[in-house]
């Protein structure tokens, strides 16, 4: 139908484990299923980025390779949801709790990427559209980061 849109959180639950304040990690480097789906249906892809999402909660440090991260990833594979250890503010005080900090989130929307219908895309065709999507998302970030207090030397990190 015309006038409808589908939103896919490409990074999904695993990306939540990398959502630390001041970071801009996007779990996208190997995610190509949404590209294949768009190609099979001839659906345009629209890059979208939200500035401030990672600032509404603090998360316990969990670098890859640590015991905590291994446990989180294992539980995620069993339960299907990620379990970041986070905290923010309380109802009557601001020092600790599970409510998000009162911080703005600004969502910017890029230009649609035209995707031609292709029921059986080759690996090379998938890679080309995937690369284009990552470039457009990166361009969107670079274009708007200065408006939302992100340092000029900070860039998206595709993992």
UniProtKB/TrEMBL annotation:
Family designation: Belongs to the diacylglycerol acyltransferase family.
Record's keyword annotation contains DNA damage: no
Subcellular location, record wording: Endoplasmic reticulum membrane
Any one Gene Ontology cellular component term annotated for this protein: endoplasmic reticulum membrane
Pfam families reported in the protein's UniProt record: DAGAT (PF03982)
Bilayer topology: Multi-pass membrane protein
Gene this protein is translated from: MOGAT2
Protein name in UniProt: Monoacylglycerol O-acyltransferase 2
Organism in which the protein naturally occurs: Nothobranchius kadleci
């Amino acid at each position: 139908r015309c006038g409808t849109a589908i939103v896919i959180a490409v990074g999904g639950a695993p990306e939540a484990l990398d959502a630390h304040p001041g970071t801009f990690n996007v779990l996208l480097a190997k995610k190509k299923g949404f590209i294949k789906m768009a190609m099979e249906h001839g659906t345009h892809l629209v890059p979208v980025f939200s500035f401030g999402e990672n600032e509404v909660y603090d998360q316990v440090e969990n670098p890859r390779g640590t015991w905590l991260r291994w446990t989180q990833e294992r539980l995620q594979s069993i339960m299907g949801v990620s379990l970041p250890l986070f905290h923010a503010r309380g109802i009557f005080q601001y020092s600790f709790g599970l409510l998000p900090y009162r911080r703005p989130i600004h969502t910017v929307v890029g230009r649609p990427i035209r995707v031609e219908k292709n029921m059986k895309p080759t690996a090379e065709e998938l890679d080309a559209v995937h690369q284009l999507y990552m470039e457009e998302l990166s361009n969107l970030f670079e274009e708007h980061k200065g408006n939302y207090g992100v340092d000029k030397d900070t860039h998206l990190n595709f993992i």
